[in-house]
Amino acid sequence: MKFHQHKLDNGLTLIGEERETAFSAAMGFFVRTGARDESPELAGVSHFLEHMMFKGTEKRSAMDITFELGAIGAQANAWTSEENTVYYMGVLPEYFDSGLDLLCDMLRPSLDQKEFDTEKNVILEEIALYKDRPTHVLFESAMAEFFTGHTAGNTVLGSSESISALSRDQMLGYFEKRYAPSNMIFVCTGKIDWEKTVAEVDKRCGAWKDYRSERAYPKFNPEKRSKTITKKGLQGAHVCLVAPGPTAADDDRYAAQVLTCMLGDSSGSQAYWEIVDRGLAEVAVMDSDQMDQAGLIYAYSSTDPSRIDDVSARLGKIIRGAADSLEEDAFERARTKIASRLVLQGETSMRRLMAVGSEWSYRQRYSALEDEVQKIGQLTLGDLKACLEKYPLDLATEVKLLPA
Amino acid sequence: MSFLSHQLDNGLTLVAEPMEYSSSASFSIYIPGGAAYDDSSQLGGCSLLVEMLGKGTTSRDSRALSEAFDSLGVSRSRSSGVEAISFSAAMLPQNLAQALSLTAEMILHPGFPKEELQPVRQLALQELRSLEDEPSSKAMVELSGLFYPAPFGNPSMGTLAGVENCTLDDLASLHRKLFTPSGVVIGVAGKFDWDKLKEQVETSFGAWSGETPRLKPGNVAKSYQSKHVQKESNQMQLALAYPSVDYSHENYYTAKVANGVLSGGMSGRLFIEVREKRGLVYRVSSSHSGSLGRAAVISYAGTTPQNARECLDVMYGELSGLQKGVSEDELGRAKADLKSRLVMQSEISSARASSIAHNWWSLGRVKSLDEIKNSIDKVTSEAIVEHSKKFPAEPVSLLTIGPEALELHA
User: What is the distance of C-alpha A404 from the center of its chain?
Assistant: First the structure.
């Protein structure tokens, strides 16, 4: 494994993790923009814009892009979150250059009005799809409630109203503010030719004009809040608890990862034995998510409406008792699990792309798989307790989704 | 790439693929069983049985078993499908032997602790109820029941009544009946020592005995039906099924490429016509299921009620339109997509383990990547047209879920 990096004159950073024995390669642009960078009238524009990247450039129509991606068998897609927008593709090595040419071109979209109007309907369908999914409804509401007064809780999809009202010019305005070369990175992994990649990206993206893309960081004072929302015709009941956790810049994130594995991994954790194994809920899990100057540790469970209070109380008990419940054996098992998962996830160029890209986006550094495994190996139970002291889980905001 | 295989005296087959650069090892165990083997009054029995197997062995309780796996960092899953029950695991290579031995203990010597049945049943019932909250999953379950004749249309999760009906004795006798080595296939891929692996499998599974006749592959529906499930939802679910050729058929890859023309990557016809040009959906796709004796093309779309009519018409037009011809560009794209997926999957040990086990399970041999690539390359547009005429999209089974019913033709 070999790491490379290079910065173009306009501020675009290129990084690569080369693995000569890989059968495939992956590449992507990681743009530091998302729902939290939207003003209320633009709600959903980051995600809508992500769709529009596939809908034509000065040189290519939407169909050209689709057919060229198809011709090289590219496994291409994109996603948008509260603070990142990522465009990526996996290709066989012989198609790397064609893929790169396409991807670089796509990132300067023409935002054709007719395509914009058609794609708006696709977004409205996507919003309707997620409205039918209880977990999505719950998580969106829980994030908004937890981040009350802070933009990190903004909805990624936006609403039918905000999307319907959005104009092509508003989207262009957003693009011109957020897609500066210094606000994104180009990442590639697997079977790559680094020198050539640098030259090719420079040729295509070197002339992109740079400017400053700013992100606002409103002050965030997490409060213990609770809320119940309802949905007609629902059979199950769902609960989500969200507490402040380590941020992306905070090294406590490793401790948080082991901690949530001990408390709420999908099997063999405290939540598993206390809730799932007893047949009280089909799912009871915990995890953490590190964001840009924000972070959260969350718990989620889905169960029968008749058991929601019991399950929620049990989750609360696990959270409150966390500091005194951590035992050496369980700690060892959790570390072993996480270390094995890291190795298994390193098997493909695509999975490495996401890990390497996210590491650089947030921390401007490279971390090899072995280094990550080592970080987990060096943790002590004391580190987990320190993490809990810094981020007391009982500050959790609770949101329930029940049948109307 | 070379495959290794070894048959035990009791009929169990071990098939393995070494992966030179892999830093992991994975296995997949296929056992004849699943929803098609369920008693009609106890639908969901196999699914409950598989859950119970995780609840402890004759020498370890549920927690001890789980902790033994976790101490080795084994990522594992077990599931009960229509015609196969499978146990899969991925781990660091040095833990392969112990993981196999633990899995053998779980499969061969279940403890069936009495107190664990109630929670297992309770969760199964809950999962059945929450299926109602997941319209796209619900659509697939309903479509299978509509399209496949019994017992192949049985839902893997069972039914509320079927799950309620199963006693611990029923599950234990189901285990005795189905869990025999005769048709079992174990696929292993990644980093391993072949001689040691054979020895390990002999030690763990060699003493297993008995024989279970495998179900004869079923035939797909002779009668085609439509069904509507009424539901107040934001989107309608549209799901269609019609027959095709199975994995053992010489035209299997023609059917796969044909499906690629419809739904490969982002450049398939369904995606372009239904989503890209008309904006009628977020999700639209079709997949080719090659299960022996009951292969089918299954198509799906989720769309709001006001778009549903047009969506179904355009979709159906594309399914039947394959007969009219396929351009060379489309053919090239469908092939490129299939081959690129194939290569990318071949980097993941768990995907390889499951794929070679499935190959052996269906064909009694393993197709090499080169053989598959060759078969894909040989497919012509004429062959696709011919195949589409032989296996047309009409008659078709149509399943809809949502606020209003929809007929195939307006």
Answer: 31
